Amino acid sequence: MLFNGKTMVIFALILMLFMAVGVAEEERTDASGQWEYVLENCSAVITGYAGETGDHAWWTPIEIWIPSELDGYTVTGIGDEAFASYAFAKHPITGVTIPDSVTSIGDGAFYSCQSLTDVTIPEGVTCINDRIFSGCKRLTSVTLPKSVTSIGAEAFMGCESLPDIAIPEGVTSIGVSAFYWCSSLSDVVIPEGVTSVGNWAFAFSGITNVTLPPSVTSIGLNAFAYSEEISDDDDEDAIYGNENLLLAVQEGSYAEQYAKDNSITYVFTE
């Protein structure tokens, strides 16, 4: 079979694509035997903790300090569901220290870590990914850096002990069910720059006061629902109210019209 120049180029491109997709990075354990990780772009992404905890029973709560370097590689990420299993099968995590070198934290990284009480996300992380702290029912304190621009779907869903959270000014979107069932939340200030609040974002969270900036142009279904159904539709599109909710909005804004359309009490901000 004869190959012309164009055919050879196409063949080479297909081969390169196959090699890139087909060769997956193997999970490694660092020299100390404590951390599991993979390499991405010559940096380490932690996928789990493999360290021993002495004679303590497996259910004994522990605190973890994530290193900034493993085997000479800078730790820049925490992988998807890296510590999710620590809610049940391994030592419960009560606290975690994340180094400044980390710029990404994967989906569900701390999903259902039910003993986790506080965490500080380092500057440089831009996205609070989906389900990252979902089900962390004892979480009482989260510090988000100014670098964060989005809060993903179900990011804090079920964090029922979280009394307060400061949403950074750089955030532009709050995802579906991001703070769903955060029953200890009371007051929330959504900063200028946020343009969208997803469906059920703060539903059943117990909030009574919300400040909405004029930058918001989209608020999803039942974003601030509590318990009172104010729609006759018995389906997934039913609209639920919150008789205790007070919205602070700018006169003439989308948020004001949203409050009117959904029979929510509101006041004008200065």
Write the layout of secondary structure elements.
Elements: H1 5-22, E1 28-29, E2 35-40, E3 43-49, E4 62-65, E5 69-70, E6 73-78, E7 93-97, E8 104-105, E9 118-120, E10 127-128, E11 141-143, E12 150-151, E13 173-174, E14 187-189, E15 196-197, E16 209-211, E17 218-219, E18 228-229, E19 240-241, E20 246-249, H2 254-261, E21 265-268
Parallel strand pairs: 3-6, 4-7, 6-8, 7-9, 9-11, 10-12, 12-13, 13-15, 14-16, 15-17, 16-20, 20-21
Antiparallel strand pairs: 1-2, 2-3, 5-6, 18-19
Q: From N to C, what is the helix and strand string?
A: HEEEEEEEEEEEEEEEEEEEEHE
Q: What would you call the structural class?
A: mainly beta
* Uncertain spans: 17-24, 227-232
Number of strands: 21
- End-to-end C-alpha gap: 78 Å
Could you tell me the strand content as a percent range? 25-35%
Number of DSSP helices? 2
The CATH class is Alpha Beta
What value does the average pLDDT take? 86
- CATH fold field value: Leucine-rich repeat, LRR (right-handed beta-alpha superhelix)
State the helicity in percent bands.
Answer: under 10%
CATH homologous superfamily, by name?
Answer: Ribonuclease Inhibitor
